[in-house]
Amino acid sequence: MNEAVFTTRNLTKIYLTGDVEVRALNGVDSELYGGELAVLLGPSGSGKSTFLNIVGGLDRPTSGQVTFRDQDLATLSDGKLTLYRRNHVGFVFQFYNLIPSLTAWENVALVTEVADNPMPPEEALAMVDMEKRMTHFPAQLSGGEQQRVAIARAIAKRPEVLLCDEPTGALDSKTGVIVLEALTRINRELGTTTAIITHNAAIRNIAHRVISFIDGKIAEVQVNDQRIEPSEVVW
Amino acid sequence: MIMNMLDRKLVRDFVRLWAQSLAIAMVLACGVATLILSVGAYRSLEETRATFYDRYRFATVFASAVRAPRHLKSRIADIPDVLSSELRIAEPVLIDVEGMREPASGMAISLPEFRDPAVNRLYLRRGRLPEPERSSEVAVVETFADAHGFEPGDSFEAIFNGRKQRLNIVGVVLSPEYIYAIGPGDMVPDPRRFGIFFMPEKVMSGLFDMEGAFNDVVLTAARDADTRVIIDRLDEILKPYGGGGAYDREDQISHAFLDAELDQLNAMATVIPPIFLAVAAFLVNMILSRLIALDREQIGLLKALGYRNLTVGMHYAKLVILISLAGILIGSVSGWWLGRGLTRIYAQFYSFPFLIFRQSVDLYFLAGGVSIAAAVAGAAKSIWSSVTLPPAVAMRPPAPTTYRNTFVGALQRIGVFSQLSIMAFRHLLRWPVRSFLTMLGTSMSVALLITSLFSYDSIDYMIDAIFFRADRQDATITFSVDRGPQALIAAAAMPGVMRAEPYRMTPVNLRHGHRELRMSLTGVTPDSDLSRVLDLDLFPVAAPENGVILSERVASKLKLEPGMTVEVELLERDKRLEDVTVVGVAQSYIGLNAYMHLDALDRLLRDGRQISGARISVDEAMLDELYDVIKSTPVISSIALQGVSRDRFRATIEENITTMSTIYVTLAVIITFGVIYNSARIQLSERARELASLRVFGFTKAEVSSVLIIELALIVLAAQPVGWLVGYGLSWSVMQGLQSDLFRVPLIIYTSTYATASLVVIAAAVASVLIVRRRVDHLDLIRVLKTRE
Ligand SMILES: Nc1ncnc2c1ncn2[C@@H]1O[C@H](COP(=O)(O)OP(=O)(O)OP(=O)(O)O)[C@@H](O)[C@H]1O
Ligand SMILES: [Mg+2]
């Protein structure tokens, strides 16, 4: 096994809404290894998105440690955290989150402009089979096409980690497969450490490891001996 | 150069929001334009005047005497700090122009021979100056020449000492002394009826029996000289020759009027532009906070992608700056254009030989800087919230707006209002600050309109007070020197004169403590019916046996009240000092005035009954005969015709006001449009889903629009009374800027003015709502419902 890219120790996140205290994460100890493809499973509200956001430098833990290589993300300044996201992390969201006033190509270029060693936007788009729709605005694209542009945007900067929060959540099975194929291909060809949150337990079999969340804790980590191709996933 | 992606988004946002951006830019442009217009016109006028004064040696001190010997020249020149002096002969005359029924007033002034005057030089517009020895040659001022179409070669008649003489015009000139040329007894310049002309000194001294003598002196003083000292020395020198009452440039009529005009421009520059800048800041705030609320997820995304907070903040700041730049551009160009136009109007109204446009770069930078600052200040809070928004929070859609049920719930239970009205009420109360500011912005338009229209009312009121209550005579005749009581009998006996009332005027300095004012003290008879002294409520009061009645401005400037004593310095009586009791305060809108019983004034001056002139009422049918007699009566030096004066006054003022109010109405409409259109658009964008859903449920287009319209209607209605109040306040402050020793404008606002202002604003609001309504009608239901809020 490769070395750990992320390590969390006793990671805790508490939300205070009025008087109610919600423990979104309740002491999570975990690792994500270089080059692996991990699937995060768990019931709604179990803390998956919270975990991914903290690991991706979008949010800070209430307590506990989260390290990226040797860097403690919990104590980084806002500016450092921004640089961390800019240089190392690619995000894919459930609702694509493209900028409506920019074309597909421009949405990707938005990222390559500020990255250190990006690939050309058209190359990233080609990896998700979207090079023919480069000049289209998000409103002119279907959901799956938008999601693929979002993936192209995430990978264009050649990130070390790719964090995907329900990338297929809003898609039908056929488009979902296309998106997953794009993700596995990138994981394989570029060696990008990839974490995918999903509600679809069938997807678990495409991963190296499956991490299951329950009530803000990791309940189980399962290592797949046998991985299947996205096209074999029974939706 | 390839634009980076954020800037592309910026440009597309700008284009998408063009209508709203333009509305804001226009409001900003108004602020910029009014600033450039008023400050620009102020500077141009100021500079033009200063240059004219400087090049043509405008005097700093003025004095007159009855008949003083020319050998005083060296004593006058020896007064410390006096740079140069000119001894002149200046005489009021009556002018008879062919084809003009009534006599005109004129002023004949001597020109030194074989040299330019050392003080108050003439600018030669056409022709040449009169040659010495040529007894009939004159140069006339341009205003008079233009009013009659005179060119060199034309001629007119003037009455010197009762002798009629034909004068040939050889030149047309301008004088720094008569930039604003107002005839005796007039309230505004009437170039047709007031002519100044210049004749060789030798000719003048022959005509007026002034060989080796002068009756008028003008001098220039060193820049930092104390003119009070010079005035005292000059009075001392001229005292034995009927002199005294030398005065400073500040008291010179033409100069004082220009000062008042400049003050007015200044008042405009300080009151109006800040309103526009504040409204623009509010509008920027409104649309930017909405834009950032809509862009919430994109902001989160940008940050998730690794964009710095500063970069994100700058992105929105740039949008604001882009809007400001558009506003500054429009404002600068129109301000420049309007400023040029306004300066030209001034140049026409006042006689300047040339115009200097002061288009200083600093002004544009100032206006631009202030506008950007105002816009960015309006945007600051929204931009800050975009910067501080944590990315993880931003990506989650905002919690649904929580509405409170308190007050509106009660309305609902009454059951009078439809669900749609209830929606409107709720929305209104959900954003109390924004609703309040929108209301305030709208009320500013109402206020601006009132501010621009109220002067009609005030002038109307003033004209009524002056011409129909106070000075109801048909004409005022002035004698060249004070006369005995038989002059009144002679005046009453002139053809067509139905009633004649005497008056006496003497120049005085009124003093109270260290405060001092120079003016004329007027003696009137208690049974005067044509010309009356009015109390503060505009009721006539008879002058009491003793004591002096002061006009309100005099009383307040000298801090005097009835019962107190004022020190009267009699300028024509060797500056003798007398203490007189203040017995009343009178209303007077023009000039500085003090009134006394004619007998009391006679006693004060100790020379028996003397009168300076008479106010007369005339039988219209006999006017021609009367004019003929007046033209041939040597003792009458001028005649002021009340009716002509009144018409001229009304015409001049209304012309000025009409120009200004056209500008202001445009400005007010732009504000209303900017405010109402923007709030309607923002409401539409916030509630597109809600409104589209209503359409899906089967509400008609009209019903759906009514949700928006009800809310805006409530805001516009609430804005009216507030606007009236603010309008009153603004009018008051503008009026303070208009007050001068020459004019005191009363603050009168008729109900119809409030109504007009409200109607204009409501009409502009309806127009902008209708435009937005078209958008409601064309709501793309599917598209709106598909987008995630
Ligand atoms: N900003 C917040 N304020 C308060 N509570 C929050 C906040 N964000 C998340 N939570 C709570 O934290 C818990 C974990 O949320 P999280 O979004 O991580 O769940 P999840 O596993 O991603 O669920 P889902 O599968 O539905 O997306 C939930 O109970 C949620 O209500
Ligand atoms: Mg989630």
UniProtKB/TrEMBL annotation, chain A:
The keyword Nucleotide-binding applies. It comes from Flavimaribacter sediminis. CDD domains: ABC_MJ0796_LolCDE_FtsE (cd03255). One of its GO terms (molecular function) is transmembrane transporter activity. Keywords: ATP-binding, Cell inner membrane, Cell membrane, Membrane, Nucleotide-binding, Translocase, Transport. This is ABC transporter ATP-binding protein. The keyword Transport applies. Residues 6-235 form the ABC transporter domain. One of its GO terms (cellular component) is membrane protein complex. Belongs to the ABC transporter superfamily. Macrolide exporter (TC 3.A.1.122) family. SUPFAM superfamilies: P-loop containing nucleoside triphosphate hydrolases (SSF52540). InterPro entries: AAA+_ATPase, ABC_transporter-like_ATP-bd, ABC_transporter-like_CS, MacB-like_ATP-bd, P-loop_NTPase.
